Automatic annotation (TrEMBL):
<comment type="similarity">
    <text>Belongs to the IL-6 superfamily.</text>
</comment>
<dbReference type="InterPro" id="IPR030474">
    <property type="entry name" value="IL-6/GCSF/MGF"/>
</dbReference>
<dbReference type="GO" id="GO:0005576">
    <property type="term" value="C:extracellular region"/>
</dbReference>
<protein>
    <submittedName>
        <fullName>MGF factor</fullName>
    </submittedName>
</protein>
<dbReference type="GO" id="GO:0045639">
    <property type="term" value="P:positive regulation of myeloid cell differentiation"/>
</dbReference>
<dbReference type="InterPro" id="IPR040117">
    <property type="entry name" value="GCSF/MGF"/>
</dbReference>
<keyword id="KW-0732">Signal</keyword>
<dbReference type="GO" id="GO:0005125">
    <property type="term" value="F:cytokine activity"/>
</dbReference>
<dbReference type="GO" id="GO:0006955">
    <property type="term" value="P:immune response"/>
</dbReference>
<dbReference type="Pfam" id="PF16647">
    <property type="entry name" value="GCSF"/>
</dbReference>
<feature type="signal peptide">
    <location>
        <begin position="1"/>
        <end position="19"/>
    </location>
</feature>
<dbReference type="GO" id="GO:0005130">
    <property type="term" value="F:granulocyte colony-stimulating factor receptor binding"/>
</dbReference>
<dbReference type="InterPro" id="IPR009079">
    <property type="entry name" value="4_helix_cytokine-like_core"/>
</dbReference>
Length: 193
């Protein structure tokens, strides 16, 4: 019994600190509305990324990461560090900056899948809109922000083969999907505070 009581005493302060960075916002109706709207928006973006992943799998037979790990090492694909979204001192800026990174990287996917340009462009627009939503919410809360210019250039050197571009598209979408899953969990956690 003493061990259980000690465990509970050690666990309780840790849990209280888990939500501490944004505790003053937990009851704010506008902030909660922002979170719930953008949770749904994030789910929609995840579905669109999954649809593009299926297209890449069906079109190029690139379906399994473990088969492409050696090629990945040579590509230098940008990947947003997910631990920023997991941290106890979570900041919405981590999600916003990640969305900005993937928005630019989707140019590779657009070149790779011209027949699915509508879906890729919708995904780019949705990523930009979610990033803008987060930017606006940060400004509404009086948090310091920085706005980045929109990039639309291909992040890969022209010297890469078509296969390298296909693999890059695969990993961009896989990384984006992981990022969205982490961002969704972070937003959901904030909504539960």
């Amino acid at each position: 019994v003493l061990v259980l009581l000690l465990g509970a005493l050690l666990w309780a302060p840790w849990q209280a600190l888990h939500g501490a960075p944004l505790a003053e916002l937990s009851g704010d109706q506008d902030f909660q509305l922002f979170l719930h709207k953008n949770l749904e928006f994030t789910r929609k973006i995840k579905r669109d990324v999954a649809a593009l992943q299926r297209v890449v799998c069906d079109t190029f037979q690139l379906c399994k990461e473990e088969e492409l790990l050696l090629v990945r090492q040579n590509l230098g694909i940008a990947q947003v560090p997910l631990e920023q979204c997991h941290s106890r001192a979570f900041q919405a800026v981590s999600i916003r900056d990640g969305l900005h990174t993937y928005h630019g990287s989707l140019a590779t996917v657009l070149k790779l899948l011209p027949g699915h340009a509508g879906l890729v462009e919708t995904l780019q627009l949705d990523a930009a809109n979610l990033s803008s939503n987060i930017q606006q919410q940060m400004e509404d809360l009086g948090l310091a922000t920085v706005t980045y210019p929109t990039e639309g250039q291909d992040p890969l050197p022209a010297s890469f083969s078509h296969f390298h571009h296909e693999v890059s598209g695969f990993f961009i979408l896989a990384n984006f999907q992981r990022f969205l899953e982490t961002a969704y969990r972070a937003l959901r956690h904030l909504a539960c505070l």
